[in-house]
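Format notes (please read before filing issues)

Several people have asked whether sequences and structure tokens are stored in separate files. They are not. Every record keeps both together, in the order shown below: the sequence lines, then the token lines. Line labels are part of the format and must not be stripped during preprocessing.
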Amino acid sequence: MTSAALSGLDLLPTAVVLVDVRLAVRYMNPAAENLFEMSSKNVAGQALDRLFADTAVLQAAIGYARDNNCSYTEHDLELGASGRTRLHLSCTVTPVELPNGEAHEDALLLEFRHIEQQLKIAREERMLDQSQANRELIRNLAHEIKNPLGGIRGAAQLLDRELERPNLHEYTQVIMKEADRLQALMDRLLTPHRLPQPAQLNVHEVLERVRSLILAEYPRGIVIRRDYDVSLPLVKGDKEQLIQAVLNVVRNAAQALQDRGEIRLSTRVVRQITLARRRYRHAIAVEITDNGPGIPEALRERVFHPLVSGREGGSGLGLTLAQNFVNQHHGVISYESAPGETTFTILLPVEEAGNG
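Then the structure lines:
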């Protein structure tokens, strides 16, 4: 492994440690320094079993990789330095060679990942796949419903003209109004499939628009607090789609509060993050937190599925559409919920030179 290769390891988001045949540390990249709260210069030359407690599992993985001259991954490893919190990690061990004068020296490359981070990435990928399936389901469903709706309304209109008793017109009017309402819903379901119209925008303009709409809908009982990072960069997106996405989430929170409670809108910058299987230097995080009862346990795995609602009379489409809009912006939406605090987080990438 050349010095150029080592410098390339500095750029990796995963924690990398290089050890020699005596399992003494030769190098740590910045991600490993952050993970283990150690300086590469201070630990250089120290053995792994002096730096970490309980290294038996790690050393077994190293032994297998070295004996078989192959990469080996230990998926369940607990490792911690003295006096620090133990970390739940996976570790991939790869034999490598280091230049040593005219010859080469055997060494081992250890790549560590937080298991929690791996689970989060896997969950986001599942949500992305589910979102794509949801979009297709909604589109097909909307098309299937629109055709018979037109027939129902037309028949009700003809029937209305033939009725002689005025009091019976009330029933045909109900049929026509409900058919019109469902027709409008189907049009809304098909709208997300138009191409986005992206432009540079300030995400706080989106949040302020949503805030004014919700306060108009719930003039009493709902308090909306703001915690904005005013230094946020602009994000490229379709303003109307982002307003609708955030509005659906905030309206969902307001309905859960049942006209009494608090919603907090906050923003911040996230650095070095993977969204929709792509790495970005920066992203904007929008957090929507309410102090309501929380999402029922039975719905937690299905909150973004279409036609799933915890509210009587709800369509179960608000969060599905929000997810669709966010995914169209190459972002992700996730949530954490407990009684008294539910937070939905929308992550939107910041496109920079070299990112596309």
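For reference, the curators noted about this record: The chain has two domains: 3-118, 196-356. The longest helix spans residues 115-162.
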